[in-house]
Amino acid sequence: TKAGYDFANLELQFFRAGDAETRLTDMNGATYNMEGGKMVVSKINKESKFTEKQDENFTMKKFALPNVKEGCIVEFKYSTKTDFFQMLPAWYFEREIPIVYSEYDLRIPPFMKYRINQNGDVRPTPKREQITQTFTSHYAHIPNAEVNRAVYIAENVPALKGENYTSSMGDYISKIEFDLNSVAMPGTSPMSYIRTWPKIVNGLKQQSNFGGYINKRDHAKEALKEILKDKPKADTVPYLIFNYVKNNLKWNNYHTYVSSESDPKIIFEKKIGNSADINLAMLAMFKEANIEAYPILISTRSNGKHPGTPSMHKFNALVIDAKIGDRHVFFDATSKNHTADIIAYDDLNHTGLKVDLEKTSGEWVNTEEPKLSKREVSYVLNLDKSNKLTGRLFLNSTNYVALGKRNAYQSAINQEEYLKTYKNNKPGLTIKDYKIENLDNPEETLTESMDVEIEDFVEEAGNLVYFNPFLFEVTKDNPFKQGSRKYPVDLGHPTEELYRFVVEVPKEYQLEKLPADHKFYAQDNIATFYYSLKQDKNRFILTSEIKLNKPVYTPQEYGQLRVMFENVLKKQAEQIVIKKI
């Protein structure tokens, strides 16, 4: 289908450092189409090959196949050679489209030993043999070398089917990766490359853009004079430092775990930096203030989970863990909208490596957010005889719901643009007198209120009037329709949606039909749904609550979520029916 057209384009990135490089040695590609009962082969041509120099170290080579149509087969075949034996490229046997044939032909000199890591459902067994060929690299030239060849082949692999609420499908895709264990070049002593966390942490300690950066404290000393001048209580100092950093530095939207400069002072002069520039500068200030604090290395949700083995290649960000009293609190100063324990949503990947530079140790810690993020919607309305609803709407948001709203409001061109986006898919809604409170105070509940008019929502048939009290908040689709689930449901954090609807109808109307109350509790209270609709004279009061009490649900728990949302859809589809008398 057209959804697969992007797979007719291939991009390969190549790295060079000095005389050492990874290079492309051969490239072929073709498109196969059945036309008039015959197979037509369209080969890649020179005009469809492009080279783009990204910087002094990286070059991107791009290839585009011709004659791409729905139903065609696309094929790429290429060979590379690398001087960087520590960084063999990974190979993916699975894609979002079906794979007819996938082959990874790897040739490694016998004096190099690797640990092989396979992931996913497709794990082909390699065909191994020894062959003789000339081995040439930046480090050695060996004619007639005995080379170990391993060929991994996968055939007729179905398309990888994504599931909603999955942090990264890259965590589940079938692939093979290689970690260098040892090298024993001819005539030299064996050199071990097996890594341990103490070795890795010691390396970070020695790095000028990690341990060296943290130890540069000139700016921290000067800034702390002002922060501590009123002698604040000890347990408030981390929050004062956090607020100082996030209000004085702007994130450049680049995730990494190493600083771009050698001294935090330079970052504060520039007033902008990457995630490590900012958070390690905050760590330096914590250290200078004698606060026990540690960097937590993480792989973001979009980057995929770290495999857990001693390796730095999957880490791409960091946050800071500070001990306050008997609590450990996470800080991420890359946004003014962050608060203590509310780090960037993309950082919520469940675990991180706590780095102790003094003890040169690394320890995996849980980074999950246990607090509910709440979204509360409250309508207080009047229904007039022309079937128009008028009144006030209140929106209260906390934690990650509030973070998302603050980011959306501040990124909009203006308030009018923000409200225009809010009104999308809400026909008949008119908003006046909009107010927002605590926009710049992320520690408090974000509160929005507005006058509303809603037309064309109430229907009339004879002397009966009926409407859905959920208005624009009705759940239209079950987010968990599949009969079963293969991968965990990863929400990132627990959530709560509370809906209140109060409507006063004319005294000349009387109740004809009122939906019944309903409660649903999943096993062990992992999720709950509550629905209550009451009548008080000529007022109707609806309260509904959906709670997802876990950040992650296993495939075994998925069925309960699906059943709960079936209940949600059923109840939210019910209408209030009243009669004119």
Summarize the structure.
The chain is α+β, with helices and mostly antiparallel strands and 581 residues long. It contains nine helices and 34 strands.
Question: Can you offer a commentary on this structure?
Answer:
This protein has 581 residues and is α+β, with helices and mostly antiparallel strands. It has 3 domains: 2-192, Immunoglobulin-like (Sandwich); 197-366, C8orf32 fold, CATH 3.10.620.30; 373-580, Jelly Rolls, CATH 2.60.120. 16% of the residues lie in helices and 41% in strands. The strands form 8 sheets. An 8-stranded mixed β-sheet has the order 23-24-22-21-28-32-31-30. The chain is globular and about 100 Å long. The protein starts with 8 loop residues before the first strand and ends with a strand. 26% of the residues are buried.
